[in-house]
Amino acid sequence: MMGVFISGTFLNWLESSAMATFFRQSLWMYPAVEIVHITSFSILVGTAVLFDLRLLGLSRKLPVTDCLRYVNVLARSSFLLILPSGLILFMVDATSMATNSAFLLKMLLLVLALANAWIFHRIILKSANAWNVGVHPPLKAKVAGVLSILLWVSVISCGRLIAYI
Ligand code: HEM
To answer: Is 32 left (phi over 0), alpha (psi -120 to 50) or beta?
Structure first.
């Protein structure tokens, strides 16, 4: 399936590269990268769910914009670790990861979760002054919150299932 997008030759090159071989053969480096991966996406998904619960109407005394400003820094910084660690985990076993349906579904859900966040930031947030504090956010904001929670939990579930497929 992924072979449609990335050639087998490239995947073979990636998997046999010096960097992939180093991480594959090292006793501690692969688990260390996995620990970085798990810790960093826990920060991302944890802060996303915290904000989504605010969108669902919890802690209405806390201004939405203040809450967002706080979680945004943590969520965006976590990607600085999620992406490199994820790429290392991928390249170590590239040829089989590229055909692993749990991994492929995870990447699709990851794109959908980022698209949902983009739509919220660029469109829904524009009217935030009207529902910033003390009132329930509008339905469109709540839908974005529920979608975010469902998509991030699905990304985690697929990530975990990679080892079983
Ligand atoms: C922000 C989004 C992400 C989340 C929430 C996430 C979540 C997970 C989870 C839960 C696991 C299983 C860890 C374990 O059980 O030990 C995992 C493994 C993995 N992730 Fe991610 N991940 C994310 C992003 C990425 C990205 C962007 C890539 C690659 C480009 C990636 C590549 C991998 C690979 C290859 C594994 C398999 C490791 C293994 O089974 O040995 N992940 N991820």
So the answer is: alpha
